[in-house]
Amino acid sequence: MQINESTKHCSQCVTVKPLKDFYISGNKVAAQCKACFKFNREQKAKDPECMKKLHARQKICRLKREKNNVASVRSFLLKNPCSCGETDLSVLEFAYKQEFKGTVANGISKWSNSRLIKELESNIEVKCANCLLKSSDTSNPIRRTLRKFIAG
């Protein structure tokens, strides 16, 4: 059976089945077919340790994703230094554009690598600490206080 709009690939039993064999919530189709979903539910009922094993696997996957994303952020910083030419990672910071909703820290743990890079490229400007303090952005109260303190 070939995959088309009326069929889906089950992530657990690795077979192509008609959409009627999957749970649908709103416009989202479940990754596992109904049979696999029921089997998993029964296994969880039989084995109370099953949820602990599942959470351990999910944590390992999240840690791998975070490690990969941290490497991508580091690479992004090296490829996009501050406009003044500063490339020292210890002083480079993210200057968020106003329309950006979220933070790089949240993205590292939650987003896929491709989404993280896309968000960085479209919503982030890399600046060193000096350039951030010199910038005209006074919306950040800490930056405003630092500027007043430094100016004397």
Strand line-up of the largest beta sheet: 1-2
Helix segment tally: 6
Shape: elongated
- Report the portion of residues in β strands: 15-25%
Strand and helix map with partners:
Elements: E1 7-9, E2 16-18, E3 22-25, E4 28-33, H1 34-46, H2 50-79, E5 92-96, H3 104-110, H4 113-123, E6 124-128, H5 129-134, H6 141-151
Antiparallel strand pairs: 1-2, 3-4, 5-6
Structure, described:
The protein is of the alpha+beta class and 152 residues long. 51% of the residues lie in helices and 17% in strands. It contains six helices and six strands. The strands form three sheets. The protein has a two-stranded antiparallel sheet with strand order 1-2. The longest helix is centred in the middle third of the chain and has 30 residues, at 50-79. The protein is elongated. 9% of the residues are buried.
In short:
With 152 residues, this protein is α+β, with helices and mostly antiparallel strands.
Core attributes:
6 strands; alpha+beta; two-stranded antiparallel sheet; 152 residues
